Amino acid sequence: MTTSPATALAASCATCHDCHLLCRLPGTPGHGVRCPRCGAPLHARKPRSLERTTALVLAAALCYVPANVLPIMTVTSLGKAQSDTIMSGVVYLLLHGMWPLAVVVFTASVFVPVLKILILAFLLISVRRGSSWRPAERTRLYRITEAIGRWSMVDIFVVTILVALVRLGSLATIQAETGAVFFGAVVVLTMLAAEAFDPRLLWDRSAARRT
Amino acid sequence: MSLVACHDCDLLLHLPPVPEGDTARCTRCGGILRRRRRNAIERTLALSLAAAVLFLVAQAFPFLSFEMRGQVTQTTLLTGVVDLYEQGLPEISALVLVTTVLAPMLQIALLLHVLLPIHLGRLPWQMARAFRLLRRVQPWSMMEVFLVGILVAVTKLVGMADVIPGLAIYAFALLIVVLAGAMASLDPEAVWEKLEVRR
Asked: Which residue of A has its CA nearest to B188?
C-alpha cells in the first residue's frame, strides 16, 4: 500500500467499546459523547491507556517480590510448623516425584506472571518509543497476555482448598499467609493492566510512519 | 456490506454478510470482527439454563471430604472462603469468593436476564447495561482454574489422607463445560442488533 491504511481514527470515527458499532465522532472531541446504540462513552482510544497500564504494571512488579519471598502458607502438623513459599511448593512437588504437577504450578505461578509483566512492559516501551516494528506480532503478544493471566490463580486456589480440607485440630492445620495476599494482588493487577492497555496504540505509529 | 473497524487495530473494513457458523477476521491483525453462530440465542439460552441448575447443585452439596486417621472433614465450595476470612486474610477470601462463586453466578444470571426476554420477543430491561456487565465479569470467572487447583491440592494430600470427591465436584466440572459452551455460542452482535440506533 502506498497510502496509509484507513483507520477509524483517521476517518474521525470510533468503534464503540461495548457493542462494536462504528460511530462518527463529532468534530470537537470532548467528553460525554455516547454510542447511539448502547449508550457507552465513546472514545477513539481507551483514555489514558499508557499511564494507567504503566502504573498497574509497576504495581504488579513491586508486589511480585513479596509474593515470592514471603510464605504463602504454614503447615502445622503435630506441633511442628513449616512455612511454604511458592518456590518451595514447587520444589516439594519435584522432590516427591510429582514433576508434571511441579511443571503446572511453576508455569502458572512463576513463569506466567513474569511473562505477563515483561510482555506488557515491552509493549508499553515500544508504544512510548513510537516503534513501528511488527505490529501484528506485538498484537499477538498482547492477546497472549490477556488469555493466560487467569491461570496464575492456581496457587491461590490450592491454598484455599488445603486450608478448607486440613483442619484436624492438633493433628494438622494449614494457615494461609501474607505471601498469598501479594500473589493475589499480582494476578489482579496484571489482569487490570491488560484490560487498560489499548492494542490499537501498537498500530497508530506504524500507520503514521508510512505516510 | 457494512463498514466496521477492527477492535484491535482500528483498520476500517467493508464486512460482507457473514454466513452462519463462520468467523470474520481482520485482514491486518487477525482480530475477530464477527463470529456468527447458528441459533445463537436459543443455544446459549439452553446452556445457560443448564448452567443455573448445575450451579445450584455445586453450591448445595458436599464438595470434597477429607479423611485422616478416622477424622472426616466435609467441605462445600464456600468452606475455604469462610476459613480464609477467619484466618485474617479477607482480601484473599474475597478474591476466591468473586472468582469461583460470585462471577459465575452473575454471568449465568445476566445471560438469562438478557436472553430469555429476547427469546420471547421482548427487549430485556436495562439490556445495554446488563450485557456490558456480562463482558466485564467474564475474565473474573475462574472455575476452570479452580479445578486445576483442586487437582494440585488433592495430589499433595495423597498418601497423607483420603480425599473423597462429593456430588458437587461433578456438577462443578460439568458447569465449567456448559458455561464455556454458553459463552462460546453467544453471538454478541445478535444481541446488540436488537437495540435501535438513535439518530
From this structure: A19
pLDDT at A2: 40
Residue A84 CA from chain centroid, whole number:
25
Q: Indicate yes or no: CB of B188 within 8 angstroms of CB of A153.
A: no
Q: Is A132 exposed, middle or buried (0-12, 13-18, 19+ CB in 10 A)?
A: middle
Q: State mean pLDDT over B175-187.
A: 94
Contact present, B21 and B184 (Cβ < 8 Å): no
Give the three cell numbers for residue A11. 476517518
User: How far out from the chain centre does Cα B141 lie?
Assistant: 6
Question: Does B139 have pLDDT greater than 70?
Answer: yes
Judged by CB atoms closer than 8 Å, whether chains meet at A20 and B189 is answered as yes
Does the beta-carbon distance from A37 to B84 stay under 8 Å? no
The closest CB to that of B152, out of A21, A101, A184, belongs to: A101
Q: What is the pTM of this model?
A: 0.90
3-state secondary structure of B10: coil
pLDDT-flagged residues of chain A (< 50): 1-2, 210-211
Can you spell out the DSSP letters for A176-194? Answer: E-HHHHHHHHHHHHHHHHH
Q: Is A97 exposed, middle or buried (0-12, 13-18, 19+ CB in 10 A)?
A: exposed
- Which chain B residues contact residue A181 at CB under 8 A? 89, 91-92
The candidate with the shortest Cα–Cα distance to A30, out of A42, A19, A14, A45, is: A42
Neighbours of A127 (CB within 10 A): 20
The reported pLDDT for the residue numbered A1 is 42
**Of A46-55, B74-83, B149-158, highest mean pLDDT:** A46-55
Q: Is residue B86 predicted with pLDDT exceeding 80?
A: yes
The DSSP code for B138 is: G
A154 torsion bin: left (phi>0), alpha (psi -120 to 50), beta (else) = alpha
Q: How far is CA B70 from the centre of its chain?
A: 38
Are B9 and A180 a contacting pair at CB < 8 A?
Answer: no
